[in-house]
From TrEMBL:
It comes from the Eukaryota. PANTHER family: CERATO-PLATANIN (PTHR38850). The keyword Ribosomal protein does not apply. The keyword Signal applies. It comes from Sporothrix eucalyptigena. This is Cerato-platanin. Keywords: Signal. Coiled coil: none annotated. The lineage of its organism: Eukaryota, Fungi, Dikarya, Ascomycota, Pezizomycotina. Residues 1-22 form the signal peptide.
Length: 272
C-alpha cells in the first residue's frame, strides 16, 4: 500500500514537473495575412487567433495558450512559419495593449511571451463549424488529413482524425469552390472526398469572405484583395515574412487551381 502510494505521488510529481516544463518562453511577432499550411479554411475559423509556429502542424497539438502581462489567449496552431513564432496581429496587439488591433493598433517587434500546448477543446470557440470540427479543404488538405487518419489507424491519438470536416473550398482564404460539406466515408479505399458538386471545382466563391487586419494600420481588409497584399509595410523582420510565402499553401492560388484540375481529371479518369 505504502509503496504504491509513494509511486503514485512520484508519478504525479513527474506529471506536474512535465506540465511545468511544457510552458516555454518564446519571442512573439505579429502576422498580418491569414494562411494555413494544412488548408484550414479561414472563413470558418477566427483568423485573429492563429499561431504560426516553426514546428510542423501535427494531428494533436493544434491549440496553444499564449500569455503576456496578465492577459491570455488561445490560438489555433494551423500553419508553420519559416522560423518565427508569429501570431495574428490582433492577438499580438491584444496581449500587449489589452485592445484589439482595430481599436488601438500598435507596432513593434518580438516580445517574449509564455506559451504551452493545451487541449484542442480550449480552441473550440475559435472554430465556427458544427461541433467545432476543424474545417479542411476537401481538395487540398488530403495529405495532412491522410497522415492523421494513418496515425489513428495505427492506434495512436489523432485529434484531427476524430474532429475534421471537409468543405469543397479550395483555398484557405475561401475564394474558390463551393461552401458545401464533403465526406470521406470509405478511407483508405476512398482517398478522395465526395462532394455535392465536383471536388475541387475552382468556381469563384464570394459568400465566405476572410478578413485580415493590416499591420500596422489596424485596418480590416478583405484577404486576397490587392490592398492587403500591397499596402502592408511591416517594420519588423518577422512581420516581413508575412509578405512572402512561408508555405506553399499560403499564396499559390494558381497551384490550388492546378491541383484541383488534377483532382477533377483524376476522378474523371477513374470514372471511365
Ligand atoms: C458562423 O457560421 C454561420 C453559418 O454557418 C454564419 O451565419 C455565422 O455568421 C458565423 N459566425 C461567425 C462568428 O463567423
Ligand atoms: C504510433 O505511436 C508510436 C509510439 O509513439 C510511434 O512509434 C509510431 O510511429 C506511431 N505510428 C503512427 C502511424 O503514427
Amino acid at each position: 500500500m505504502r509503496s504504491s502510494t509513494s509511486i503514485r505521488a512520484w508519478a504525479s510529481a513527474l506529471v506536474t514537473a512535465s506540465a511545468v516544463a511544457a510552458t516555454s518562453t518564446v519571442g512573439v511577432t505579429p502576422h498580418a495575412s491569414y494562411s494555413s499550411s494544412i488548408g484550414v479554411l479561414g472563413c470558418k475559423v477566427n483568423t485573429n487567433r492563429i499561431a504560426y509556429w516553426p514546428m510542423a502542424v501535427d494531428c494533436n497539438n493544434i491549440c496553444v495558450s499564449l500569455s503576456y502581462s496578465g492577459r491570455q489567449v488561445y490560438l489555433l496552431r494551423i500553419d508553420q512559419s519559416g522560423g518565427a513564432h508569429d501570431v495574428s496581429y490582433d492577438a499580438w496587439n491584444y496581449l500587449i495593449t489589452g485592445k484589439s488591433a482595430t481599436a488601438d493598433p500598435t507596432a513593434g517587434g518580438s516580445v517574449n511571451m509564455e506559451t504551452e500546448n493545451v487541449d484542442a477543446s480550449k480552441c473550440a470557440s475559435l472554430i465556427n463549424t458544427s461541433g467545432s470540427k476543424l474545417p479542411l479543404s476537401a481538395a487540398n488538405s488530403m495529405n495532412f488529413l491522410n497522415s492523421c487518419l494513418v496515425e489513428q489507424a495505427a492506434g495512436n491519438a489523432s485529434w484531427v482524425a476524430e474532429n475534421y470536416v471537409l468543405y469543397n473550398i479550395l483555398d484557405p482564404i475561401c475564394t474558390y469552390g463551393y461552401n458545401e460539406v464533403c465526406t470521406l466515408t470509405d478511407w483508405p479505399d476512398q482517398n478522395q472526398p465526395t462532394c455535392p458538386h465536383t471536388l475541387g471545382d475552382p468556381v469563384s466563391l464570394t459568400s465566405q469572405p476572410v478578413y485580415n487586419i493590416e499591420y500596422p494600420t489596424g485596418e480590416k481588409v478583405l484577404a486576397g484583395s490587392s490592398a492587403s497584399s500591397t499596402t502592408a509595410t511591416p517594420n519588423t523582420a518577422n512581420a516581413a515574412s508575412n509578405m512572402g510565402c512561408s508555405s506553399w499553401l499560403q499564396c499559390q492560388s494558381t497551384l490550388f487551381w492546378l491541383m484541383s484540375m488534377g483532382a477533377v481529371l483524376h476522378s474523371f479518369l477513374g470514372s471511365l
